Amino acid sequence: MSLNLKNLKKIFKSDGVENIAVDNFNLDIKEGQLVTFLGPSGCGKTTTLRMVSGFENPSAGNIILDEKDITNDPPNKRDISMMFQSYALFPHMNVRENIEFGLKLKKFSKKRIKEKADKIIELTGLSGMEKRRPDQISGGQQQRVALARSLVMEPKVLLFDEPLSNLDAKLRESMRLEIRRIQKELNITSIYVTHDQIEAMSISDLIVIMDKGKIMQIGSPYEIYSKPQNKFVADFIGNVNFLEGKISYIGEDYIKVFNKELNEEFIGYSDKELKKDDEVYIVLRPEGINTKKENRENYISGIIDKYVFLGSNIELDIRLKNGKLLHVNEYNIIEKELPVIGKNLEVYFSKKNSWIIKK
Ligand SMILES: Nc1ncnc2c1ncn2[C@@H]1O[C@H](COP(=O)(O)OP(=O)(O)OP(=O)(O)O)[C@@H](O)[C@H]1O
Q1: What pTM was computed for the model?
Q2: Is ipTM beyond 0.85?
Q3: For ligand 1, is residue 42 a contact (CB within 6 Å)?
């Protein structure tokens, strides 16, 4: 089931003041894809999800499910299920009754209800717990019941609104992989809202990065991380350094950027049409910088300001000539010795780790 969101817009009005919560939102989701909405609090993730589910009416735009315009259909006519962060199971019903509840409302035969529930109970790893009530199972198991309850209805689209935020870190990690496994197995088109960038990176086919109601970038986790299209996206995902500069030369497969403060020229690359004298940022991930001389395409030096020894790697900050800090993730522990604070350190990075975006 493909899902297309076209020019979606949502304006909330309160006390005569208009607040544009979602603006010009365009997204095409292919059948079976899991798409994550990621962005800071208040950027419009939940509002967009609620428009898809039908709980919120768009101020403009269209929602197309399998080529049919469902923008004005009520929630119960959409074949879309939503799994919330507070999973609100019926406390007086056991696991099986919770899972079968929606099917009973839809008046399936007893046999069909049992068949469907059995399949989903097995798929979500709840076998053996059917007779227990929600207060007799763990938080993770309750989450599975909530998932099972959504899945058993065989919706065309499944929406997740921060489903794992009530769970501890370890459980979240295993549950998100579980959700991804089941989602893939059933090939169910899904939208997943989260604050957690690791969660988004680990389960998504596509990530939509949002800010102030607008889409900042849509891409695979790899594209979002390695080829951010603007400073917001680069900064939002992972740790990053920005080196400012002006384009001094455009070669066939490389670009030279001159940084005035450091009086250095760096080489990098971009997939955009850039021209000489454009003001740009070089996006430099800490793990793309190290002390290995084979990456010598670019080098930069500074004074070791501080470091954190993490066993398998060392994170260090070096203070550059312009007073700014450069974050370096040095996996290859420097000559098997700990860094010395105050000592000068020369670090290197390749063209491939030097991604250029327009200012
Ligand atoms: N019912 C409402 N009435 C007025 N404003 C609203 C309403 N619901 C949301 N908003 C506003 O719309 C904007 C987007 O809110 P939304 O809940 O979609 O953000 P979010 O990205 O899901 O945030 P969070 O990560 O904190 O859940 C915010 O400015 C919010 O205050």
Answers
A1: 0.90
A2: yes
A3: yes
